[in-house]
Design goal:
The chain is an all-alpha fold and 264 residues long. The chain folds into 2 domains: 1-51, no CATH class; 55-259, Up-down Bundle (Four Helix Bundle (Hemerythrin (Met), subunit A)), CATH 1.20.120. It has 7 helices and no strands. Helix 2 crosses helix 3.
Length: 264
């Protein structure tokens, strides 16, 4: 596990304290016991990797500069011809003061949003690479004649399917949290954000439809391995849409999040 998204609902302060004081220590203790048990059985548990350092302050500053003078025609991640693309030309843009003060809570909310998006971007790249590798292996006629390769490819299909399903589930949960928690809070604080928040919500719906296409492509692949290329195409389209959506959301919302006392 590299990232855990915790979204308290009813009583955030109490739930966050309980998570920090009870759940997190309990998980650490359980992991330590499992590692000791593995070592006692002669197994070598995988070492934890050091988290990468992300210069969030630079990312936030860059996004603030970008939203100060929004481009007339967005050019990020232009969709491929077969993509069910987001309508980027209809995106409203807010005029914001790049030099506005940022509250401590606002800085925390900015960093949280960027960390979640960065994690989703990283796994999106891994998902694309996995789909590409599986599709390439499936289309190699010489290797396909090998029984051993056929067995390995079947395992790869299931692994790719599980990876896709897990990733799509996390994206759906992230968007649900935004739709039912973050966006309503922002609407209450600043009425001027409504056009942008409405557009972001509409894009969530379009992305949900693309996630459904990915799911249908996975089902087809399980029934017929030759359909793996459709999974790759669907994953490519999802990548185009998500990268564009994440960039737009950061450009428009990092500024307001920095000013407001909202916990994301």
């Amino acid at each position: 596990m590299s990232v855990f998204v915790f979204a308290p609902r009813q009583d955030p302060e109490t739930e966050l304290r309980r998570f920090a004081e009870e759940v997190a220590p309990g998980v650490r203790e359980a992991v330590a016991q499992a590692r000791e048990a593995a070592i006692s059985q002669g197994l070598q548990p995988q070492a934890a990797t050091e988290p990468s350092t992300v210069l969030l302050t630079e990312r936030i500053a860059t996004a603030s500069d970008a939203i100060a003078v929004p481009p007339a025609t967005p050019t990020r991640n232009s969709p491929t011809p077969h993509s069910a693309a987001l309508n980027e030309e209809d995106r409203p843009h807010l005029k914001q003061d790049a030099g506005a003060s940022v509250t401590p809570t606002g800085r925390q909310s900015q960093e949280t949003l960027i960390q979640i998006h960065d994690h989703l971007r990283m796994e999106l790249r891994e998902l694309q690479e996995a789909a590409e590798q599986v599709a390439t292996g499936a289309m190699d006629p010489a290797a396909a004649r090998s029984l051993l390769n056929m067995m390995a490819m079947r395992q790869n299909y299931w692994t790719l399917g599980a990876f896709c399903a897990q990733y799509c589930r996390v994206v759906s949960i992230h968007h649900t949290i935004e739709d039912y928690q973050m966006f309503p809070s922002l609407r209450r604080e600043e009425a001027s954000l409504k056009p942008v928040l409405d557009k972001l919500h509409d894009e969530h719906e379009v992305i949900a439809e693309q996630i459904d296409r990915v799911d249908r492509a996975l089902v087809a692949m399980m029934n017929d391995p030759r359909e793996v290329d459709q999974v790759r195409r669907a994953a490519d389209d999802l990548t185009t849409m998500l990268l564009s959506h994440f960039a737009y959301e950061e450009d428009e919302l990092l500024g307001p999040l920095g000013r407001l006392e909202l916990i994301v």
